[in-house]
Specification:
168 residues, alpha+beta, 26% helix, 5 helices, homodimer, 6-stranded mixed β-sheet
C-alpha cells in the first residue's frame, strides 16, 4: 500500500538527480500546461486524424459536443512536464515502457493540465547495480481537479554512487 | 492461442467498417511511414526534450551514438497508420486505453516503420449491445523487419446491425 508523502519538490534539481532521490511513496505535482486548440488540431492532423480531434464543426455534432485532444497529445503534454521536472536530466536511461494507459475523461482545448506523479516503487538492478528502476503512477489532472488520464511509467535511473565513482 | 490468418486487408474500407469486421486471429500490415529527422527533433522539442531526441551532437556522444525518436513520437506514427487503415472511420468510439507499451529497439531518423496489427479478441458489450470491444496487438516493424515498439490497444467499435437499425 502506498502512503503518500506530498513534497513541494525533490531535494535535488533534475541536473543533480539520481536513483537515490526517488523515494517510494513520494507524490509530486507540476504544471499546469495549456491545451491549446491550434495544437490539438495540428497534432491530430498528423498523428490521429479523427474528426473529434481535427474538425471543429464535425466534433460539435459528435459525442463530446466539441473538439477533444487526442489521447496521445494529452500524454505528450504530461511527458513534457515529466521531462522538465521529474526525470533526471543527467542519469535517465531510455524507458523500457509504460503500462495501463487510461483515458478517463475528455480533454478539451482551453484546459490546463497538471501532472501528479507518485513513486510507486524503486528497485536497484541486480545485474547492473549502477542503475535502478523507478515505477511511477503518472496522472493528468484538469483545472477542475479531475483525473483525465493516467499511466504507470518505468524509468531506469543511474545511481549517484556510480556517477561519483566514474567522476573519481 | 492466436492462430494468425494474414489478410491483405479488411473486406470493408474504413468508412464501411464495423465491429463485425474484426475477426479474432486476423493480422494486417500497413505502411510504411517515414521517421524524418526534422520531425523527430520538432516533436521531442515540444513533448520530450531529452538530448538523445533533440540534439544531434549530444546524441552522437550518447548511448545510441546518434539521435533516436521519442517513443511517443514512434507511437504517434503508428497511430496515424491505425487511423488511416485499421480503425473504423464511422463507428469508432473513444478508446478507453492501451496496455503494455514496450519500446524494444531504438528508432532512428531515416527509418521506415510498418504497422502490424493483430486482432487478439473481440467482445460484444453486454450492457450496450450496439458496440463491442476489439483488443489488438499493435507492433511497429522497422525496415530490417525488427519489432521496435508494441502495445495492446482497446477499441470500442459500433456494430453494423445497430448502424443499420438507426438508418432504418
Amino acid at each position: 500500500m502506498l502512503h503518500p508523502m506530498s513534497h513541494p519538490d525533490f531535494p535535488t534539481p533534475p541536473h543533480k538527480r539520481y536513483f537515490e532521490d526517488y523515494v517510494k511513496g513520494s507524490v509530486f505535482e507540476y504544471g499546469p500546461i495549456a491545451v491549446e486548440e491550434e495544437e490539438v488540431i495540428a497534432f491530430a492532423t498528423r498523428f490521429d486524424p479523427q474528426s473529434i480531434h481535427t474538425d471543429r464543426s464535425a466534433a460539435a455534432r459528435g459525442p463530446f459536443k466539441g473538439l477533444i485532444a487526442s489521447g496521445w497529445h494529452t500524454i505528450g503534454l504530461l511527458m513534457r512536464l515529466l521531462v522538465d521536472h521529474y526525470l533526471s536530466a543527467v542519469a535517465s536511461f531510455a524507458s523500457p515502457g509504460v503500462d495501463e494507459v487510461r483515458w478517463i475523461r475528455p480533454v478539451r482545448p482551453g484546459s490546463q493540465l497538471r501532472l501528479r506523479v507518485s513513486v510507486l516503487d524503486t528497485r536497484l538492478s541486480r545485474s547492473k547495480p549502477d542503475r535502478g528502476m523507478v515505477h511511477s503512477l503518472v496522472q493528468g489532472i484538469d483545472q477542475e481537479g479531475e483525473v483525465v488520464v493516467s499511466f504507470k511509467a518505468m524509468n531506469l535511473i543511474g545511481t549517484r554512487e556510480s556517477s561519483a565513482s566514474q567522476a573519481g
